[in-house]
Amino acid sequence: MPIGESEKVRIDRWLWSVRLFKTRSQATEACKKNWVKVEGNPVKPSKFVNIGDKIAIKLGPLEKVVQVEALIEKRTSAPLVVNFLKDLTTPEAYQKAKDQKLPISARAKGCKGLGRPTKKQRRELEDFLYSDQPTK
User: Which end of the chain, C or N, has fewer beta carbons within 10 A?
Assistant: First the structure.
């Protein structure tokens, strides 16, 4: 349910509510890593969003751009998300990201025969392969 015009919503909560991130902590972490920008400026998770803001989100090799159409504080069902945001990402950007997504080679996974990487190893690989910012 959309909230009133006078209400304020944090960006991490809004990103989670419109299903751009699976958990709120993932949305918070993305803000801390400067993967979320409002009007071209990196933001902290506590920044309030306004209707009409353009938000750029780095999701792996994809730079997704959305515009805030309405404010929402609670997570909503997927079909209703279109009421709260407008996707401004071009189809070319989706195709480019699909082409750029690197398959993780057997060498990057580890020694042959050890199986799939653990969740921690996979996250470290994703951070290494798709991160613009050097880690601290």
Answer: C
How confident is the model over 66-117, as pLDDT tens digits? 999 999 989 989 899 999 999 999 999 888 888 887 665 545 555 555 788 8
Residue recorded with tokens 């909230």: 3
By the 8 A CB rule, do 43 and 36 touch? yes
Q: Do 27 and 49 form a contact (C-beta atoms < 8 A)?
A: no
Spell out where 46-112 has E strands.
48-49, 54-59, 62-68, 85-87
Asked if residue 93 lies in contact with residue 86, where contact means CB atoms within 8 angstroms, the answer is no
Token readout for 117 is 């990487």
Interstrand relation of 54-59 and 36-38 (parallel, antiparallel or unpaired):
antiparallel
**What type of residue sits at position 125?**
L
